[in-house]
């Protein structure tokens, strides 16, 4: 790759400087490096791979992926610039009818997941806003293309990382809302997307040893986990990133019709449809994810459990629409 820029290619920067990682897949949507890009060598040093505005070498990127290097790195000071350029390019890709749906889905999903990871790792306003920026083209792609939506659902990866869970739930919930509400403009899909993707942001304030505990939680631990609902709302409110949709989804997605949910113990019709959509996506993702306390279920087994035990009795219409996401 070109060595034009402020530092020669191969120059090393001390590992303790602030860097954040980006998925190599994201770079498929840009021709030139949005900012200086680095790889990390075996000793933990960050080595300049491509200088800002240099032409990206596709073959070199493919070689990195071939050798299992799926992440590159950007200096923290460049995060805003990287996010702005990436968002503009993603918007162009989503609107371009000549780009295959599978390519759109792969790039959009990787970009959104990376931004979600940064927001969960450091839930300050700039990083949450960057996540919101990446949520918009993801929502647009789901709204515009059923084929791309199917690819997005196939691309969901299941592990116990909260940001992965939240990204998956966001994709499932936006897709379900799109099916259930159609194109009714009374429902702002961008605001809904922000609420769905960030519904569990409060878990970044829950001790990791409780979130990843392999066995049953104690009652005290359960109460700590339950606090993530109001903590998530508090984070969004503190950073001035709150909408009516996000408030409703964040605060109500664990409410149950029998009144045994939390945090308010709401019942029946008092639970908003937006929260119900998020709950269905949340339950499915939890059942199909690999967790410290259970093995992941197949799609068939997860949907069977949901039908027999969880949601089909009270949310029949929503569940019927949810099943359509896995048809064909």
TrEMBL record:
Signal peptide: none annotated. Pfam families: HD_5 (PF13487). SUPFAM superfamilies: HD-domain/PDEase-like. Residues 141-328 form the HD-GYP domain. InterPro entries: HD/PDEase_dom (IPR003607), HD_GYP_dom (IPR037522). PANTHER family: CYCLIC DI-GMP PHOSPHODIESTERASE PA4108, CYCLIC DI-GMP PHOSPHODIESTERASE PA4108-RELATED. This is HD-GYP domain-containing protein. It comes from Syntrophotalea acetylenica.
